[in-house]
Write a structure and sequence with these properties.
Length: about 140
């Protein structure tokens, strides 16, 4: 059974299919069947996403089993694939918690990202003022 693209298909569902096709996780001629099989879900559950979009459980499965970033699926911003943010930070190896924070920040709107950046800057300045010889100052050097 193949998927038919409709003008009313939910945006999050379109993103899932596009990313799965890009990574060749599903075959173009059997998208619906391939996606359902890859996620271990019934055809009907996946088909329901066309009108309603994926549930949170569905988003979690898409990320865990296919490596497609659930935040990107839901919002359309941030890296498409889990771990892709590594490539966006000049090749620096980031700790998992740092990477997770970077991905969450990247998924924010521009306005909220600016606010978060300002808050982080003020927090770091405060910490550096309290402990001038801290790791924070040394890391920036």
């Amino acid at each position: 059974m193949s998927r038919t693209t409709s003008a009313t298909q939910h945006e999050a569902t379109k993103r899932i299919y596009d990313a799965a096709l890009e990574r060749k996780l599903i075959a173009p001629e059997s998208q619906l069947t391939g996606l359902a099989a890859a996620l271990g879900m019934t055809l009907q559950l996946v088909k329901n996403w066309d009108s309603r979009g994926p549930s949170q459980r569905g988003l979690n499965l898409v990320q865990a089993r296919l490596g497609i970033n659930s935040t990107w699926v839901r919002t359309g911003s941030g890296p498409r694939f889990v771990g892709e943010a590594h490539q966006e930070f000049s090749g620096a190896r980031l700790r998992p918690r740092t990477l997770a924070l970077a991905e969450r920040l990247d998924a924010l709107s521009d306005e909220r990202r600016k606010l978060a950046s300002d808050l982080i800057s003020v927090t770091l300045q405060t910490l550096e003022a309290e402990e001038p010889d801290s790791k924070i100052t040394k890391r920036r050097s």
